[in-house]
Amino acid sequence: MRLGIVPYSNAKPLIAGLDCPIFEAPPSQLPSLAGPDDIILGPIVVAFEDPSLYILEGAGIGSFGPVETVKLFFNKPMDVIPAPCPCTGQAPAGIQFLQEIRSISLDGESKTSAALLKVLLNEKYKLSRGIRFLVKYQCDASLLIGDKVWEQGDKPSLDLGQAWTEWTNLPFVYACWMTKNPDIGREWKPKLIALAKKNLGNLEKISNDPKLLKYWRRLCYELGPKQKEGIGLFQKYWAEIENKPILKLNWI
User: What would you report as the CA-atom Rg of the chain, rounded to the nearest whole angstrom?
Assistant: First the structure.
């Protein structure tokens, strides 16, 4: 058995101190690299598509409000972008500006973030029609995830976690532990939850970087009833947009 993890800072409170074989890959690649007995920190959308997966309750990577590292960046000239909010420093994604977007470059590392963006555009902003979604092209806007988001500086953007919570008043779960072997899942679930609690109780042992500490404390690493409610609502909208059946999720 191996644990598959993502190469981002947001995963460190869940994985610091792990003592087992580990492999690392972007979230979109983890499922294809995992063996039948492996546990991966997989994107939640994968569980919507694969009925053989079991999701471990208790710990995951989520947000309630701003997530900071899942953003849609606006590439339009500055004179058509709304001024940043004085409280948050973020440029508001006004409906007038979003209506000008005709193409969006997607981050190939994440299926969940791309699905969340499409749900928000379709259901919250009613703007999905006429928008082309591309990969690695210069577009009107770009979806980016992970630590590379910080490299964009103060470029105007829409935080998808914040948009989701403002709309639904629910947390959003991006990734959680999942496996195809329920026995291994049951064996490892208490170990992974205990490790997360230990790390979250003493984050300074993982890093003394004030920016990282603030970021980790903003995120939600719990996977409880409210998170499951958010997952269920997201799955409903995802299934409608993708014209897919709503699978019954397997929880451990």
Answer: 18
CA nearest neighbour of 241 among 131, 153, 155, 121: 121
- Kindly state whether residues 153 and 228 are assigned to the same domain: no
Question: What is the spatial distance between Cα 39 and Cα 22, in angstroms, rounded to a whole number?
Answer: 10
Query: CA-CA distance, 143 to 158, in Å (whole number)?
Result: 9
| Total domain count, the chain | 2
**How far apart, in whole angstroms, are the C-alpha atoms of residue 170 and residue 64?**
7
Give the pair of three-digit tokens for residue 58: 């208790």
Backbone φ/ψ region at 49: left (φ over 0), alpha (ψ -120 to 50), beta: alpha
pTM confidence score:
0.90
What are the pLDDT tens digits along the chain (252 aa)?
999 999 999 999 999 999 899 999 999 899 999 999 999 999 999 999 999 999 999 999 999 999 999 999 988 654 444 444 444 445 444 555 677 788 999 988 888 999 999 999 999 988 866 788 888 778 889 999 999 999 998 888 899 999 999 999 999 999 999 999 999 999 999 999 999 999 999 999 999 999 999 999 999 999 999 999 999 999 999 999 999 999 999 999
The DSSP secondary-structure symbol of 54 reads E
Phi-psi region of 71 (alpha: psi -120 to 50; beta: other; left: phi over 0): beta
Give the whole-angstrom CA distance, residue 210 versus residue 224. Answer: 28
Same-domain check for residues 199 and 142:
no
Tell me, yes or no, whether 80 and 160 share the same domain: yes
| CA distances to 25, 59, 155 from 10, in Å | 14, 13, 21
Alpha carbon distance 90, 157 (integer Å) = 7
